[in-house]
Amino acid sequence: MAFTVVDPVAGTRLAEYPTMTADEVAAVVERADLAFRSWSRGASPGERAAPLARAAELLREHRDELADIAVREMGKRRDEAAMEVDWAVGHFAWAAENVDMLTADLPLQSEPGLRLVLRPAPLGAVLAIIPWNFPYLNVARIVAPNIAVGNTIMVKPAPQCPESAAAVERLLHEAGLPDGACTTLYAEVDQIPAVIADRRVVGVSVTGSRRAGRSVAETAGRHLTRVSLELGGSDPFLALSTHDMVGLVEQAFWMRNFNSGQVCSAAKRFIVMDDLYDEFLAGLVARMRACVTGVPDAEGVEVCGLSSQVAAERLEAQVDRAVEQGARVLCGGRRDGTFYEPTVLVDVAPGTEAYEEELFGPVAVVHRVGDEEAAIALANDTPYGLGARVFTTDPAQGERVADLLEAGMVAVNANVGGGPYIPFGGIKESGAGRIGGVVGTHEFVNLKVLTIAS
């Protein structure tokens, strides 16, 4: 078996990375544990920050080369691939610049004669299971802060994205990280339980599907291993009022279709007030029809094909079942190889599969509601709880609605953010825990209570 890079457009095999044997996987765990005990645990914050800062510089220097890899692996639009490298640079730079904050004591209420603090202490080797849709960003946002606080990382990439993972590992070593501090784990799914069961592995971070999250969480639970889960979403976009319908539709288009719609926190369900519905729907359908589709390097292209033939066929099957269950396709709805036309669905009823599932591609589901209460109820009527967006001309309404939405992240008249300082994550079946910021970084540290007599 091998991790294989397949050109999504041409379908040709471009590179193969052999899957590790059981002994090779065990050796990666050994190296990660050794690097923790011999370097990261005892290194000063500044000593850990230096290679992270240098890694940010190297990623920036190799921006075009790294973007080329992402285009080859998943057919990402070239400018979006370069943008993703920039985001990864930001995560490494932020971790380096804020290492003192991430490792600083947190004061606690104390009694007379005592000083109490929470002192973040590293735990050891962490396994990060990474998806394919953002191969650089998803690596950077778990690797950078964990190295900063003194953990070591084993990165298990998606099977179709081994080349990007190898490139990041190479640049991290060039930046000065010692052997074992960050290592790529080319392991099959059935090899992962043994890694989680190893007592030297102190935590597991999973970004992926609900099925993957449940499997990992079950294994981690048996061994009382810490786990952080980011498992996708079916984010609502609530259109409550607007002074600029053209602008609102344009935001809806890009919040659905960035990265060809393959974003866990993308807006996927558009919940529109009755007085806006007809104009919004007509505008979105027209914009989706006018979308420029094509290969990653084509000039002016807005949406490319999906990451693989399997992904495109899966989305096609979901839309076909939605239609069988009563939904209507107002535009799109057809597949050509890995390309799936930007699509608008209406009449997706409660109890149908499309109402419950995440549609991972350029498909927007639009609902009509009569009032604010109905909008909130529909937004929350999902097994997911990752992000949400509220658009309104009334700031008080925006915050009121945001408080009632069941999501880990809510934006009012804005997009859900993903910067390195933001604790990214959700609730319900979108997962548990956070990635990023101080909160996310502390998922895999021991917040040790120190009581010190004065």
Automatic annotation (TrEMBL):
<feature type="domain" description="Aldehyde dehydrogenase">
    <location>
        <begin position="3"/>
        <end position="449"/>
    </location>
</feature>
<dbReference type="Pfam" id="PF00171">
    <property type="entry name" value="Aldedh"/>
</dbReference>
<protein>
    <submittedName>
        <fullName>Succinate-semialdehyde dehydrogenase / glutarate-semialdehyde dehydrogenase</fullName>
    </submittedName>
</protein>
<dbReference type="InterPro" id="IPR016162">
    <property type="entry name" value="Ald_DH_N"/>
</dbReference>
<dbReference type="InterPro" id="IPR016161">
    <property type="entry name" value="Ald_DH/histidinol_DH"/>
</dbReference>
<keyword id="KW-0560">Oxidoreductase</keyword>
<dbReference type="InterPro" id="IPR047110">
    <property type="entry name" value="GABD/Sad-like"/>
</dbReference>
<dbReference type="InterPro" id="IPR016163">
    <property type="entry name" value="Ald_DH_C"/>
</dbReference>
<dbReference type="InterPro" id="IPR015590">
    <property type="entry name" value="Aldehyde_DH_dom"/>
</dbReference>
<dbReference type="GO" id="GO:0004777">
    <property type="term" value="F:succinate-semialdehyde dehydrogenase (NAD+) activity"/>
</dbReference>
